[in-house]
Amino acid sequence: MAGTTNLIMKTLLLFPVVALSPGTAVRYSANWTSIDSRPLPPWYDEAKIGIFIHWGVFSVPGFGQFSEWFWWWWKGAQREAEVDFMNKHYPPNFEYTDFANNFRAQFFNPDDWADIFESSGAKYVVFVSKHHEGFCNWPSEVSWNWNSVDIGPHRDLVGELAEAVRKREGLHFGLYHSLYEWFNPLYLKDKASGFKTQDFVFQKTLPELVHLVNTYKPELIWSDGDWEAPDTYWNSTEFLAWLYNDSPVKDYVVVNDRWGKGCYCTHGGYYNCADRFTPGTLPDHKWEKCQSVDNRSWGYRRNMKLIELMDLPTIIQDMVYVVALGGNYLLNISPMEDGMISPLFEERLRGMGGWLAVNGEAIYASKPWRVQGENTTVPVWYTSKNNTVYAIMLEWPSKLMLNLEVPKTTKDTIVTLLDNPSVPLKWLPTEPAGMVILMPEDTPVSHGQAWVLKLVEVA
C-alpha cells in the first residue's frame, strides 16, 4: 500500500494553471475550476455511439427490475419480490456471495463480443469493472476472494475484453467503476462517521482506480455510486488531477460527471446527469445518454419479455434525437452469467450497425445544426458537418413530397438520399426559406425506419 499512498499524496499537490507556450503540457490543479477547464479529447465527440455492458455476480440470479441491484433489493431494501424469490428457490442459509460460485463465464469469448460490438457501428465500449456489489471483474489487489480471478470464472474479464476490443481498429475501450459498495464494512464505517473518515476511499476505491488505469489504460472512466458522499470524501479532484497530469492515459482519457454528491450535470468531463438523461433543448455542455435495450434493467433478467425490450426503430429514433442535440448515445446490453449475449440483444446491435453502415455519415463526427429539428411533413432531426446538413426523417412522406421549412437553399444546393447517393433528388425553394423535395416512389428498405437526406450547399 505504500506506493499507492505516495501516489495519492502526490495528487494532493496543487498545480497552478497557467498559459504555456505551444508544446508545453498544462498541469491541472486538484480543484473543480481547474479540472473543468480541461478540453474534452476530440475522439469522444466524434465517436457518438457506445456500447455499455453490465455483467457481474448479479447476472447469476438475474431477477427483478434493475436486477444489477439484486443484493440491495434482497438484503438492503428487503423488497418483497426478491425476498420471495430467494425464499422459494434457495435454502435459508444461502448468502449472496454464494452466487459467485455460479458466475463461471464458461462461454465467454471476448472476440465474439468484440465482433458484435464492432458490427453494431459503435465506436467505444464501456465495461462494468465493478458494480455496487463490489465484485471486481479483474484481479483487484484489494478485493481478495471477491474478484473474477479468485472465484467464479477464474479469469481476468477486464483484461481479456480490453485486448479483444483493441484489436478492432477505431473501437475505444472504457471502464465503468462504482465508487461505493453497499455492504463493505469499511464504507459502512465511513458512512456512520458522516464521511469524516476515509478508510474505504484510501484502502479500496482509490487503489482500485489507480490499478485499473495503470494496468488496462482505459480511454474512458464512467464513474458511478457517488451520490451518498461529497466529492471531498472521494478525493475526486485529487484523483482527476493525477489522471490528467501524470497517468498513462492523461492525453486522451475521458471521464463523466459522477464524482460526488451534487457533481453530476455540473463537474467532470462530459455530463451523464441522471440515467436515461433526455434534455428537451440543446445543452451547452457535451453530454451522453445511457439507455438500456431492456427497459426494466441494466443487468440480465431471466424473466425479461420481448415487449420490455426496445425495438430497432425505437433505438434508432432515440439515437438520432441524442446526436441531433449534441450528445453521445451509450446503449446497454446485459450478458448472461455464462458469458453469452442473448440473440435478442445481438439482433438489436447488428441492426443498429446495419443502419449506421448506410447512414453513419450523418452521425459520426457530426455537429448540432442551428435548428435541431422540425415536424412539418414528418418528424425530422438535423445534424451537420462542414457545409453539409443532414435531414434525418423518422417517417417516409406519404405523398412523396417532403416540405422542410428551415434550410436556406442556394442555386448550388444538391439533395441526395444516403440510401442512393448517386441520384440527386428534385426540389423547389419555398418562401421565405425552406424547400419541397420530391421523394422516390419506392420507399428504400431501412433497418430502423429512418432515412437520411444529404443537403449540400445550404446556408
TrEMBL record:
Subunit structure: Homotetramer.
Domain Glycoside hydrolase family 29 N-terminal: 25-361
Matches recorded under InterPro entries: FUC_metazoa-typ, Fucosidase_C, GH, Glyco_hydro_29, Glyco_hydro_29_CS, Glyco_hydro_29_N, Glyco_hydro_b
Cross-referenced Pfam families: Alpha_L_fucos, Fucosidase_C
Domain of life: Eukaryota
Purpose of the protein: Alpha-L-fucosidase is responsible for hydrolyzing the alpha-1,6-linked fucose joined to the reducing-end N-acetylglucosamine of the carbohydrate moieties of glycoproteins.
Catalytic activity: a neolactoside IV(2)-alpha-Fuc-nLc4Cer(d18:1(4E)) + H2O = a neolactoside nLc4Cer(d18:1(4E)) + L-fucose; an alpha-L-fucoside + H2O = L-fucose + an alcohol; a neolactoside IV(2)-alpha-Fuc-nLc4Cer(d18:0) + H2O = a neolactoside nLc4Cer(d18:0) + L-fucose
UniProt-listed Gene3D superfamilies: Glycosidases, Golgi alpha-mannosidase II
Residues carrying the site annotation May be important for catalysis: C290
Descriptive protein name: Alpha-L-fucosidase
Signal peptide: 1-19
Keyword Hydrolase attributed: yes
Catalytic class of the enzyme: hydrolase
GO biological process, one term: fucose metabolic process
A GO MF term: alpha-L-fucosidase activity
Listed EC numbers: 3.2.1.51
Keywords carried by this UniProt record: Glycoprotein, Glycosidase, Hydrolase, Lipid metabolism, Lysosome, Signal
Gene Ontology CC entries for this record: lysosome
Localization of this protein: Lysosome
Similarity section: Belongs to the glycosyl hydrolase 29 family.
Sections of the chain in a coiled coil: none
Boundaries of every Alpha-L-fucosidase C-terminal domain copy: 372-455
